[in-house]
Amino acid sequence: MLPKRLHARMARARDLDDSARKLLAALEVDAAEALRASPVRAEQTTTVARSTLVLRDGLSARAVVIHPQPSGREETGALISRSAWTWLQSRLSPCLVDPGVGSVRSVNDLEPRGLVAPLQVSESTVRFLDAQQGTHLLVLPLLDSDSVLRGAVSIALRNLACVGAGFRGLVDWSASWTGTLPAATELLLRHAPVGAESVDADALLPVIGAATRPLFTTLHRVARSRTTVLLQGEPGVGKSRLARWVHAMSSRRDGPFVAAHLHQFTPELLPGALFGWKKGAHSGATADHPGLLGEASNGTLFLDEVDRMPISTQDRLLELLESKVYRPLSGRVQNANVRIIVGTNRDLEQLAAEGQFRRDLLDRIADVAVILPPLRERRDEIAAWSRYMARHAAQDDGFSGTVEWGPGALQRLEAHHWPRNLRGLHRCVRRAWMLAADGSSVDPVVIGLAAVEQALALGFVGYIPPTVAASPGPEATEPSAPPDLQSAILAVAAAWNEANDARPEPLPFHWGEAVGAAIVHGAIRRAGNRAAGLRSLGLGSWVRSGNSKKISDRATRAWTRLLTDLDTLPTDGSSS
Q1: CB 3.0-4.6 Å disulfide test: which of 9, 158, 348, 451 passes with 436?
Q2: What confidence tens digit (pLDDT) does each residue in 207-216 have?
Q3: How high is the pLDDT of residue 497?
Q4: Which residues on adjacent β-strands are paired with residue 257?
Q5: Which of 364, 360, 275, 357 is nearest to 321 (CA)?
Q6: SS3 for 206-267, per residue?
Q7: CA of 352: how far to CAs of 51, 130, 228, 316, 369, in Å?
Q8: How far apart are CA 233 and CA 230, in angstroms?
Q9: pLDDT in the model for residue 377
Q10: What DSSP designation does 511 have?
Q11: What fold does the segment set 213-279+288-371 form as a domain?
């Protein structure tokens, strides 16, 4: 239980900042007393310099409180390190960050060794400790009543004799506070967070919005199990990123993470690629191949675009999930020690109803089913994602200064439609950064509205919804003229040739076939169903012959492939 006096003081706090400072002050005093009463190496005194509280909605930092209140701007960005946050996510227990030896370990681990898989201690943590003349950070998790990680408290300590060793006096103290902090966390969560952007946010999920927070909270709870997870959503919403995060939060985090994008395999090659083969299984099999399952052993296998898996391979996947065994081509039955995460951008329920996806397999992979909403339904995340992407674009270009956003720039990004979701936003932000930096060494670099507009206009970034004009007055009674089809076709040809002039290599000419696919695809979307769309194009014979689905799927694949290729093709000779 939380000490009565502290509970009463936090309950009377007027806001989150006041409540957090009362908690941090109590922790500092109590930690100092515990350290004074315990023996340390060489009997040197351990001092408590400063403490920091980071409260997160899901995983994204939303409130930062430092005690005592910082006197300068250089101290306001001091959060817990990425390595400590990764520790808390996977273990939900206190840890001690020791930058002197580059380690993050349990507070009761007194041996001077780092992690088996070393985690990088962030530069902000080192700068913070240097400013306070500290040597260590003690980090405690803030868990709510459901044992969900909602934030952390870090306390800066100084004791040169304990570099590379543990603090014996912190073992029992941290254990007692870990048991009482959930009550404090509930009191903190009563207040609305003060918006403070994290400069050291989670590397895999740096931004959590109102629409995605419940999804990630659920996945955080099931990540440690072996449960199969189904991730659904439009292309570019972040399914691969989320799958990697689930793996990092699981007990298999030290094992491999293997992502298999099934569109890369033909139906004939997929079984061998997935399950592996023995030498001589087919022509060209000159050696044993472990397959994706073998490569992901003791880890996680992410099967993206599972809707492309043929029925025969679906049978084998179902057997794997139910019996935990599989058979390589021409090989013996093997045990499967792997966690499966499945991704798709299509409606598997509809595919199952149409007989294209096994219903029993769908029931099996949907133990936990999550639908990631598109970015246009997560507009509260766009500004934070843009800041995060711009910082990383600057770092990739070797820029160590500050990146700022000019008036109206982030609002322009928030107003965009983003049909390609985070993928399209990332491309646009990187372009805007390059346009704003322009190879100069000015600090800070300000990404203005003009740079954003130019980035949106460069190449195919996303579909901008047409502007709906105001209703005409009574005098405007004549119907609008039909579109000039000849001019539209010539405009497409001119755009194609202009794009070729701006590229180091011409566009593949066979992409022109996708124009017809776009017409089919657009007609179906406009009509609302496949049959009506095809009939509007004079293709009723396809509907009568039963080939309507095959034709529409072929058109959709061709159009999607063209958009994907255009999105990944460099426009200036370099990858973006």
Answers
A1: 451
A2: 777 788 778 7
A3: 72
A4: 300
A5: 364
A6: CCCCCCCHHHHHHHHHHCCCCCCEEEECCCCCCHHHHHHHHHHHCCCCCCCEEEEEHHHCCC
A7: 54, 59, 18, 17, 16
A8: 10
A9: 92
A10: G
A11: Rossmann fold (3.40.50)
Give the C-alpha separation, 569 to 299, whole Å. Answer: 32
Task: Classify domain 4-188 at the CATH superfamily level.
Answer: GAF domain (3.30.450.40)
For 209-237, what is the mean pLDDT? 84
CA 201 to chain centre: 11
**490 pLDDT above the threshold of 60:** yes
Domain locations along the chain: 4-188, 213-279+288-371, 378-457, 490-568
HSE-up (13 A, CA, CB side) for residue 131: 17
From the list 81, 79, 76, the residue with the least C-alpha distance to 122 is 81
Query: Sheet containing 149-158: which strands, arranged edge to edge?
Result: 60-67, 47-57, 149-158, 136-143, 95-98, 103-105
3-state secondary structure 125-172: HHHHHHHCCCCEEEEEEEECCCCCEEEEEEEEEECHHHCCCCCCCHHH
CATH number of 378-457: 1.10.8.60
pLDDT tens track for 249-284: 788 888 899 999 898 888 888 888 899 888 877 777
pLDDT at 573: 40
Tell me whether the CATH fold assigned to 213-279+288-371 matches the one assigned to 378-457: no
Nearest in space to 139 (alpha carbons), one of 189, 81, 193, 78: 81
Distances, alpha carbon 19 to alpha carbons 70, 77, 543, in Å: 17, 20, 66
* E strand or H helix that includes residue 391: helix 379-396
382 by DSSP, 3-state: which? helix
Between 56 and 325, name the one with better pLDDT: 325
Dihedral of alpha carbons 88, 93, 97, 102, sign: negative
Q: Is the pLDDT reported for residue 320 higher than 50? A: yes
3-state secondary structure of 288: coil
53: part of which helix (H) or strand (E)? strand 47-57
The pLDDT mean for the chain works out to: 77
